[in-house]
Each structure stands twice: as structure tokens, then as C-alpha cells.
Amino acid sequence: MNEELAPVLEPAAATAPAAALATILFVDDEPSILSALRRLFRPQGYKVLMAEGGEAGLALLELEQVDLVISDMRMPEMDGVQFLEQVRQRWPGIVRVMLTGYADISSTIGAINRGEIHRYIAKPWDDQDILLSVSDGLTRRRLERENQRLALLTQEQNLQLQVVNGQLNEANTQLQDVNAQLQGANQQLHGVNEELELRVKARTQELESVNGQLADANVQLGTANAQMEKANQQLNAANLQLEENFALSISVFAGLLELRDGSVAGHGHRVATLARRMAEQMDLSAIEVTDIYNAGLLHEVGKIGLPDHLLQKTVSLMTGDEFEQYKLHPQHAQAALMPLGRLRQTAVIIRAQHERVDGKGFPDGLQGLELPLGAQIIQVAATYEALISGRLAEKVYSTEDAAAAIREGLGTRQEAAVQEAFDLVLEQIVAEAGADIEVLSAELKSGMVLSRPVLSPHGNVLLPAAFHFTSPVIKQVLDFEQRLGQPFSFFVKKPQDPKSAGTSKKPAPATPAASAAA
């Protein structure tokens, strides 16, 4: 047997889901036919086995679990009818398909009667026809298995119903006996009722005395309920504070990640804010929006273990070995975050942030519907922020060039819905860029709203966007400014024109991403 055409296991395409794999065995004495079939079916995600004859095919079936067999009709030593007949006898669950170039009606009838083939395909075949035939055969096999499972389940449930019916019959008999006993008891109760009436009168007098005591108890219970209501309010407030502290902890941790050399201050917050706006634009649920926002804050947590010299390099300048080391950071991030139950979905999104819809990303080569929507959003937001900050390439992109670069990934890196959301949010950011003003600390007034977050030199958020200034906060800012001897300035929203307040929508709050784009 030719070594190149010996029984071969062809791995499925890296992008095919494991659950979709089906195993197909091709049996033909012509190597060229086997090669053509392999080229046709390999990209479809099937596990492909090949044999040059019936004996070799039977030997393979002894070793491998096969879902479908396609056999040539004319072969030396053992023809297709004989081979498929043995397959039917020994492995009746395998779907059998005959492939021949001879219009031999008797052979076809033999294959149908003895081999019980699913489909007869003539050479030369039509690629689409043979692909559909195989898909139909595999679907048929799956349905047959499901029917068998359902039949067994139905049989088991019928037996259970018979047992239950027997129990119900027995219970009905017992109920009849009880009813008879109740009728006798009712007759006895009729005589007892008269005696009970006398006792009730005496008991009523006792109850009137007890009611007075219950009234006092009700007053005490009302007091206890009020205390419990107050305790519940305090508990709800504590839970709300825990939620806020958890969100603040994530925000603070994201800022700490940027203390390493090579990090751009506020990058994580800008990515998170842009990603959140895209998710909201796509009408995702509140939980999904929160998971995506957290993923934006923590999308570089896996880089904390990278050496400093690698953190300081742009991706386009990394060597092959450096890039392989860099590619591990999504997996490290997932491993670090998975123990936190609240961040498990966030960890899944971060792991897939470098995947692509065409299956050419890393680390898992996901494609199409396998790729989480949140991961696509993070990929677009992080790439955009990295381009305009010079983290991804040797040059710093303008916002227009960065947006154009993102659009080049449509259909390969992100799907159309994600691209549309990005374009709409970017338009909003451009519109918001002129919707704020810069004021000094001395010009702050109570009620002013921050349009951009106030960041520390290391990127930590000191005051978030949409923060409302109050008189006590303004006093603290002025005192802090006086102690440092350095003037501060803030970007706040422009006051809304009262004449247009009733006819125009209030602009969306400015975000860290808006500040960067501006």
C-alpha cells in the first residue's frame, strides 16, 4: 500500500468546533479519488479516514469509530457491494454511501439490497451534491440515534406510569375506606357539637381577656417590625456600598496595572469607557455591559507578569519569541480572574480579546459565533486606543487614521454590528468634544458636571466623568491646590441653553474615551 495513501487521519480545521466533528471513511482503489475527496471534505471540519480497499477499510473500522462510509463500487479483491454488506452486518449504525463511475443497475440493486446504502452517487460527482449527501446522511444517523433514545425513554416512562397508576388505585381504595370512617365520625360529631357550644361560650369569655393581651403584643410587634424595616434599609445600604466598593476596587486595580513602565496613564479606563458605550449602543443587557466594562479595565492584567523591556515595546517591533510570550497574556489574565465568581464572564471575554471572526486570532482560534460579542467590542476599543496612543505601532495614529484602521478589520476581526456600534459612538465622541469647557479651580461652581475624568499621573481615576461638584468638594479642591501651590483645571459640561432644553436631547455624559478622541 502506498504510504501516502495508507489509512490516514486528517485533523479537522482548527476553527471547527469540537462538538461538530464527524468521522468519514473513504474507500477507493484509486489514490487520486481519495486525494480529491480529502481535499473536498477536509475544510468542512470532518475527521477523514482513507483506505485503498475493502480489507483495509474493515481494518480501520475495527480501530476507529466511524459515522459514515463512502465506498467505490469497482475494487479488486472485494468490491463495494461486498464491503458495504459487511459494514451493514458488523456496524449497522454507520451510514453507507456508494460511489461508482459505472452505470451498472445490478450492482446498484445489490448495494441497495445487501449493503442497504443511504445514497448512490455517480462519478464524476458534483461537489455540492456529495457534501449535501454526506450532511444528510449524518443528520439521518443523528436522528435515528435520537429516536432510539426517545423510544427507550418513552418505554421507561410508561413503566413508571404503570407503577404510579397502581399506587393511585391503591390510594383510591384507601380513600374510600377513609370516607366511610368519616361518615361514622360525622354522626358522632353531631352529638359532640352541642357539648362544644357550651364550652365555646365559656372559652369566648377567656378569649376576650386574651385579646386584650394580644393588643399589647401587637403594639410590641409593630415596634419590632419598624426596627426590622430599619435594619433592612441599613442592610440594603450596606449591600449597595459593597457593590460600589467592588466596582471601585476594580477601577483602582486597573490603575495599579499602569504603574509598570511602558503603560499609558488611563489606557484601561479609556478602553473600558469606549467599550461600555459600544455595548450600550448595541442594547446589550446591564449585566453584559458591566462584564464588558470590567473586561476593558482589566484587559491587560495578564501582562503584569511580562518583563519590563517587553512592556515598553510596541507590538509591531517585537521579535517572534517576544510575540509568542506576549500572546500568553490573555490566558494568564483568565487564570488570575477565574477564582472571582463575579469576574468569570469578564475573564472569558479577556481571554478572547485577540480572537478574530475569521478564526486567525489567538489563543484558541475561535471564529464566527464562537467568538463572544464582548471580546469583539474589547478588541475594537483596545486597538483604537492603542493606535492613538502609539502602543500598537511605531507611529501615533490620528483619530481618523485609527478609525480607518479599525474599519479595515470588518469581516475579519469584528462583525458588522460591532463595527456599526463603533462608528456611531465615534460620531458621538466627536460631537461631545466641543460640548465642554476648561475651567480653573477658582471658577468651579456647585452643580457643575465633569465631562472628562480626573486622572492621577499614573492613570488612577480621582474623580470620574459625570461627577457633580458640590460646595464641600470645591472647598477640598481649593485647599488641596493651595497646599501644593499648583493650579488645577477641569473639563466640565457647558451649561445647556434654556431655550433649547425643551426641544433637544441632553448630550450623553463625556467619557475618558471622549477626552482621548478630543
Q: Quick one: overall form?
A: flat
Give the structural class: alpha/beta
Unreliable parts: 1-19, 498-518
Order of helices and strands: EHEHEHEHEHHHHHHHHHHEEEHEHH
Q: Biggest sheet: strands side by side, in what order? A: 2-1-3-4-5
**Quaternary structure type:** single chain
Biggest pleated-sheet summary:
5 strands, parallel
**What percentage of amino acids are in beta strands?**
5-15%
Average pLDDT score:
82
Total number of β-strand segments? Answer: 9
Alpha plus pi helix count: 17
Helix content: 55-70%
Give the helices and strands, then pairings.
Layout: E1 23-27, H1 31-41, E2 47-51, H2 54-63, E3 68-72, H3 80-90, E4 95-100, H4 105-114, E5 119-122, H5 127-257, H6 267-281, H7 286-298, H8 308-311, H9 320-326, H10 329-337, H11 344-351, H12 373-389, H13 399-407, H14 416-432, E6 436-440, E7 454-455, E8 461-463, H15 471-484, E9 489-493, H16 498-501, H17 512-517
Parallel strand pairs: 1-2, 1-3, 3-4, 4-5
Antiparallel strand pairs: 6-9, 7-8
Helix pairs in contact: 2-3, 3-4, 6-7, 6-12, 6-14, 7-11, 7-12, 10-11, 11-12, 12-13
Folded structure, characterized:
It is a single chain. It is built from 17 helices and nine strands. The chain is an alpha/beta fold and 518 residues long. Helix 6 packs antiparallel against helix 7 and helix 6 (267-281) crosses helix 14 (416-432). Mean pLDDT is 82; it is low at 1-19 and 498-518.
